[in-house]
Amino acid sequence: MQPIQLSVFSETARLRQVVVHDPGPEIDRMVPGMMEKLLFDDILHGDLARQEHGVFRQVLARVADEVLDIQDLFIEALQVEGVQSAFFTDLRRLTGLPEATCDYLRELPPAQAARAVIGGLPWEDAPAHTHWEQEFDYRVRPIPNLLFMRDPASVIGAGYTVNSMATWAREREPLILSYVFRHHPRLRQHTDQARWFDQVTPLVRGDIKAPVSLEGGDILVLNPRVLAVGCSERTQADAIHLLAERLRAHRAGNPDSFDHLLMVLMPKKRSAMHLDTIFTRISEGECLVYPPYFLKGSLELLAQGLQRSGLSPDDREPHPLSGECVSRLRGRPQGSEPRQPARRGAEGRLVRPGTQPQADELLPALRLRPGALFAPNPGTQRQDRARDRLSQGQRLARAHLPGAERGE
Fold first, then answer.
1. In a designed cystine with 281, which of 234, 313, 342, 365 is the match (CB 3.0 to 4.6 A)?
2. Distance between CA atoms of 294 and 229, rounded to whole angstroms?
3. How does residue 51 score in pLDDT terms, banded at 50, 70 and 90?
């Protein structure tokens, strides 16, 4: 198998390899009583979610060289000698699963073990409801949020982060990603020097007791020298400082590494869950934004801390995340008309300098390669209006995506 090289220095360059997760039995096993704690606003229809995600994968396959599923990678990692036993030892330390359950999972074939870890494992006597007093009627509860693959791990430049999730519902996901990165035959060549952030390993070893949270939806690679990280409901400032210190140490021996980290101070509320839900780069000169946080004069204008001097977290200079900031990122002369870059946004609107977005022009989008965006179908008229606002050369793929998944 050919090794997978880590290389993400842009949010808008052509996608070459991407890791996704097809909705599986973890979606089918979620019932209304589980929704709130598993971070969903509604129950997904499993068959429809799989059909729509299949469309998404087909679009990705048109532009990417390789589309991988995290469950397949996890199975292949578990097939390495000794890895499956070690994983369930760490899983018990992390989640407190009963030893009997972990022993049972250790003896399963790798494909069945991975399916149980992700899709959940019902009690053998579940139809008799003998475990009705337990909050979730599963021996191993499902983890439906793995559908949102951006969050539990991130590739930043030529390295990666094993992120630390803010909520109990997603605590298992970083451990899966950690084992894939460290043990999969196509990824294990990446040493600890390439790991910019990891709280799950010291947590299961007992080196720390209270991890700080960092989620991938708050991490945006703006260009080969500049990284933006949202300090949000899901990502803590202390975690951003740890990431900055690690990148600063790396830069000491690699002067071509990142030299700026922008800490974006965000309101701690679910409507601004992650930076990528309000700030989405779609080309070198255009973005989707949630206007109340970005347009000058707004009472909700975001502030941010600019990490300077080789990513030192102690040298911050707050100012609005607006045109002045973007001028620094793009290297545009001060006083020139800057454009606003960004990434995928659940409530994004296309904004160009001097324009005022309309209330009905919300359009989420994912940049696939130069000239091509992917977006769900928000209704023909609204999509056509947004299409008219895109640059010449941008093509918008029509497709349906699951609409109820406010997971993450």
1. 342
2. 16
3. very high
